[in-house]
Design a protein that fits this description.
GO terms for molecular function: monoacylglycerol lipase activity; short-chain carboxylesterase activity. By secondary structure, the protein is of the alpha/beta class. The protein has 21 helices and 15 strands. Among the domains are: 272 residues, Rossmann fold, CATH 3.40.50; 75 residues, no CATH class. Helix content is 54%, strand content 12%.
Length: 586
């Protein structure tokens, strides 16, 4: 009766014993394998894991014969910048071949920051003082410094120098001593450009001298520095290059000022574009979190240099405890910059909304494997819609790296930038400031019209002003004339009101007197207008003789008084005639 159950139990026990014996046999077989084989297998698995984790592309490059990846260009079909400039750039139409032993975006980015192979040279320092009391360090490297082979402290650039000038805006916590900035400055100066690196406030060894700090959307420093350089060297074509956060600042500045910028052309390298998307991206994966932490340490070091001001304006305890860029922005940037929240700061500082407003030839270079600035934030459609922008994207390159050559001594984007601005400089597509065109037209008009003008000061004095200077000074004269005309009209209206008040006291003949006075007023103004035109014509023909100028001033300034007296006299005369006629009828 119970035998089937016992048979089943026996079968299960025997099965367990056989399976256990099988595992024992497998274990004995594994023990027979040499330990070295296990080490090799572990290393192979680890290498495969790291190859994918660090995004290596060595084998892809190897099997493609190290031909590199082509440069993808995004532009408007009718873009004059592409057809007239970029189409002539061989580097942008070539292929980027990464250094074989740096065939990873993370290796490239790390090597740039820890080594970088920067060229050896020295800058010439100039301190620029902003209107709010802030200090900006401008570091110069001129083409003559490179050509002479030695740095000359007393070498200065002439105001009439026509050598193209390039303004460089560094990235977050970077300055003129950063490896990639030195690569860029040296490469441009070698090819005949004058380079000035506009360091952010508090960087480059300069202290913070005001309560204003830079941030990812602070464009005022770039604006005042570029305007200063444009006025200081008006004959030198001015170009601008921004890197990383500096590229975001540059694009935002170009979009804010549109046609008014004095920049002939610009280049944006590895811009974050949308700071909200970048904030979400940099805390997504383990590797990105490492970059986030590294950048936060750099920001904390920057804050440590200026601890007295940060302690007063921000949350110093929160800054020291920050573990991410978002934490630092919450405890420092938002408080100093008066932003309500971190997301508000990111939205207001993002450059993407300004892309469509850029009116300057702009080349944008980004790597699709950038570990800091994600490809998800690239404004493809906006760049394609703007005829002034050409977007160049490369499959590999890392963040601001793009090393090339066996030794990794060159940066691809430096060569591409130098070629672009060189071709742009030799073309007819350089941007000209809109006000410059207006000033040129105004100078032509002012050379035709050189007549004198009457200037009435607040103390009642009268002076003759001529339009001997063109441009802004001439515009100021014209602006002043508007206020002078307003003062003259107000004075005439007051005289008319006083005359009307006197004529209203005339009794029963007030209405008729008012009508006569208004008719006479119209005739007087007609005579005044005709006389002014005749005198203007006469004086423009003989403006060299001061006697005509004095006569002109005397007549113009005395007409209101004579006109008022004439109106009063005529009103009284008409009133007597009307009173006599009324008494005769009675």
């Amino acid at each position: 009766m119970f035998s089937p159950n016992f048979n089943q139990m026996d079968w299960s026990i025997s099965w367990d014993e056989s399976s256990l014996n099988a595992y024992k046999e497998v274990f004995r077989a594994l023990c027979l394998i040499p330990i070295l084989h296990y080490v090799i297998a572990f290393m192979v698995i680890w290498v495969v894991f790291l190859y994918n984790f660090l995004e290596f592309h060595f084998f892809q490059d190897f099997f493609s014969g190290f031909r590199g990846a082509p440069v993808a260009l995004t532009f408007h079909p009718t873009s004059h910048i592409y057809h007239g400039v970029v189409s002539k750039c061989k580097i942008l139409h070539g292929r980027y071949i990464a250094t074989p032993w740096l065939s990873s975006p993370h290796f490239q980015t790390a090597f740039l920051n820890f080594f970088g192979n920067p060229p050896a040279f020295s800058y010439r320092r100039q301190l620029f003082h902003a209107s709010d009391g802030g200090t900006i360090a401008l570091d110069w490297l001129t083409s003559s410094d490179i050509s002479r082979g030695a740095f000359e402290v007393n070498h200065t650039i002439s105001k009439d120098d026509t050598t193209p000038l390039v303004v460089v805006i560094p990235g977050l916590t970077s300055d003129s001593t950063s490896s990639y900035i030195k690569h860029l400055a040296f490469g441009l100066a070698t090819h005949g450009w004058n380079v000035v690196v506009s360091n952010h406030r508090g960087l480059g060894g300069v202290s913070i001298t005001s309560d204003c700090f830079y941030n990812a959307g602070w464009t005022e420093d770039a604006r005042v520095v570029i305007d200063y350089l444009h006025h200081q060297y008006p004959k030198a074509p001015l170009f601008a290059i921004g890197t990383s956060i500096g590229a975001n600042i540059l694009v935002k500045y170009l979009g804010e000022d549109r046609e008014k910028v004095p920049v002939a052309g610009a280049v944006a390298i590895c811009s974050p574009w949308d700071l909200l998307i970048g904030d979400r991206f940099i805390c997504r994966r383990l590797l990105q979190k490492l970059y986030d932490r590294a950048l936060t340490i750099g920001l904390q070091g920057y804050a440590k240099l200026h601890e007295p001001r940060y302690s007063r304006l921000a949350n110093w305890e929160g800054i020291k405890k920050s573990r991410s860029i978002r934490d630092f922005d919450n405890f420092a940037t938002c408080l100093v910059g008066k932003f309500e929240t971190v997301d508000t700061y990111y939205r207001r500082s993002t450059s993407t909304p300004y892309v469509l407003n850029v009116s300057v030839p702009l080349l944008c270079i980004s790597a699709l494997d950038d570990p800091v600035c994600t490809r998800e934030a690239i404004p493809w459609d906006e760049c394609r819609a703007n005829k002034n922008i050409v977007l160049a994207t490369i499959k590999h390159g890392g963040h601001l790296a793009f090393f090339e050559g066996i030794t990794g001594s060159r940066l691809w984007w430096v060569r591409a930038t130098d070629e672009f601005i060189g071709v742009l400089h030799s073309s007819s597509h350089m941007h000209k400031k809109k006000t410059e065109i207006t000033e040129q037209k105004a100078s032509i008009e002012s050379s035709i019209d050189q007549g004198p003008y009457v200037n009435v000061r607040e103390d009642g004095m009268v002076a003759a002003v001529g339009s001997a200077h063109a441009g802004n000074k001439s515009v100021e004269h014209f602006t002043g004339l508007g206020s002078i005309q307003d003062k003259t009209v107000l004075a005439t209206e007051q005289t008319q009101q006083q005359t009307e008040t006197k004529s209203d006291v005339a009794g029963s003949g007030g209405e008729v007197s008012g009508e006569c006075s208004s008719l006479l007023r119209i005739k007087c103004f007609d005579v005044i207008t005709a006389s002014k035109r005749w005198l203007d014509h006469l004086l423009f023909r003989k403006n060299g003789k001061s006697v005509w100028l004095l006569v002109y001033i005397a007549i113009i300034t005395s007409w209101p008084i004579l006109g008022s007296a004439l109106r009063i006299f005529s009103s009284k005369k008409k009133l007597r005639k009307f009173s006599a006629a009324t008494s005769h009828r009675r």
